[in-house]
Specification:
The protein has 19 helices and no strands. By secondary structure, the chain is mostly helical. Helix 3 runs parallel beside helix 7.
Amino acid sequence: MEHITLLLGIVIITALVFDFTNGFHDTANAMATTISTGALKPKTAVAMSAVLNLVGAFMSVEVAKTISKGLVNEEGIQPEVIFAALVGAILWNLVTWLVGLPSSSSHALMGGLIGAAVASAGIGAVNGSVVVTKVLIPAIAAPLVAGIAAYLAAKVTYKLGDKVGEKTSAKGYRAGQIASAGLVSLAHGTNDAQKTMGIITLALIAGGAIAPDANPPVWVIVSAGMAIAMGTYLGGWRIIRTMGTGLTDLQPQQGFAAQTSAASVILASSNLGFSLSTTHACSGAVMGSGLGRKGGVVRWSTATRMFIAWGLTLPAAALVSAGAELVMRSGDIGVAAVAVFLVASCFAIWVISRRQVVDHNNVNDMESAAAEEPGVVTTAIAAVTVPPTVAAAGPSAAAAAGTTAAVTDEDLKATIPAETTAPTTAPAPAAAV
């Protein structure tokens, strides 16, 4: 077995912790729509996803090669750099999980790696062409392609379901949704588990434990697959809530369309070696399927917050990782300080999350989040619309309402004729006439 130093062991354990957070952070990608439409019970859904994530981890190593051999130059990269990269990625994952935003664990990892590498060896340590072609372009293309595909797929599913009853159609698509959710989980394992494999492999190369051109060892593949499966089983319920019912209201037909489209995009990117964000693909597919149903809507206030988080992921993780790398230049004391900071931050985030617990029992309770904040147009219309009670009082009262900033109950009583406020006798029943 490879010779592993204490520092390298710390890096490997931290990488597996990141893989664990990646699992519960991205459970929503596969199972949010299945849970929100009632196709599967929450605990059953996450258990199924965990098993298929583990299976998917063994299906390919192309994405792992992109991380370990293409994103940064291996020369001059030390294990401390990998550790710093993981610190930024883990903290970003936990912060976005705390606020329930589905951001990209993949981009957090790559942003951390880029920031730490630049802080350590300069801008030349990063392969810019790889960042553009295999990271940035897929980041933009994935939600667009998956969204368009899901929009068209939702249109087709409703068109095909016109000839059968709504209940029969919904039942059939729930069954299809379970299969498509399994496909997304499998695809997630082939893409996201490999990123941790690539990071561990890069750390082993940097530490001199394996040859520079080596593929991920078997024990790395197994441990990465197990870590992401365990995280998936715990379920990132906060993000599942946002993805399942916070972005749009999904019917089984739309859930099936969203998951099938997302799985197709993720599997295709894995085979091409693109380090695709499964979050971007699945979120785009959910929004596309939401618009694919007649009368369907997307809650753009939630979507806007999500887009902002996407844009901040790379630079935020890069800045934190660069700072961690600079601190660790002081030697063992710096490494210990960064490790303590990471553990303390993780614990603090967990304590804050306990103030409002979200789990499998209340994951679909979205009464407060489902309501959009009133927009400018809605607020303006409400401000100039005559209240029904004033309108009933006649033109003079309506005019008064239009010129008065606030209308009190006493004002209303004064404007309504006495005969309209006095109790009236109900007409006699028709049978008594």
